[in-house]
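Appendix C reproduces, verbatim, an entry submitted by the partner laboratory led by Prof. M.T., so that reviewers can inspect both the input and the predicted structure.
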Amino acid sequence: SVSAAFWEHLRRLGLQDFPCGLGGWNMSRFNARTSPCGGQPWPGTDPGGQEEAVPLGEESPDALMELLSDRYSPWALPPDCSPQDQHLRKMAVLAPELVHGSNVLQVLRSLRIVGKGVEEVDEGLLQLQQLEELILSTNQISRITSANLPRTLKVLELCCNAVADLQDLCAQPPPQLQHLGLGYNRLCGPSQDKYFIAAFWPNLVSLDLSFNNFTDLLGLVSQLSSLQKLRILVLQGNPLALIPTYRGFLVDSLPRLSVLDDIHIGPDERHQFRGLARQPELIRSEARIVVSIGEIKGVPDPSTRQQLEVGSEAPVITYSYCVMYKF
């Protein structure tokens, strides 16, 4: 489940272990903050401008932060770690009480669980009451229940999963969602077209449906036209993208779009395709693919074979080849 992967991820971050968390390496600093006298400054932040001496056996906050940031440090995170992980580790040094135990659930705004074999989006996510971004790419998720998603979500990325039906996701979707990523899944039209309307996604700005199996361009556009805030749309990789008038029809049918298939829509392009939306008869449910073979390696060229002399008794060797293309 997502929750299990999340807690395992936190364990690997080592938020309670040196140089993060509370321990003998920084105990006096936090004892001073929680003492009855209160108001005492941290070491290194003397109001008089003088550096306070760090107690013997302890480390200053700057030294601990350097252990996290130095790429040669054994406690450094890998270069491809998320900004959220970096932020949590920094908090675990400067204010460890904020990320201790269940407290971390109150500060987490972004969660990135990628390639962890997750199959279930469980209700444990509801504990993340401030979560705004949820990235679950490259897992094995086939079903998503909207009741298990925090209502604060603004970004939901589910690229490279096995999602085939959106009914459960659209039962009560997060009302403030601005980006929905469903690229490289198993969605098929026209049965799923009906879920891309403003009734489910009133604030959606960006939608990625690339590399699924949507085939009905007219039907899908009629639903997408209700998304008044939609500015970015990705449909490449679907069969409908092979229709000759595909881009022009979309550009003219969705005048609020700014980017289609990662290509900006300029004024010249809008002018070029003006009026195409009023000619649905140009949309054919067929496409033609032309494949040109430039060079084949590893197969003998028959034109270079020497012609045998007439009447020669030399044995003749015949070669046959079968070339297959899979689309």
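Residues 34-51 have pLDDT under 50 and may be disordered. Additional entries are available on request from the coordinating office.
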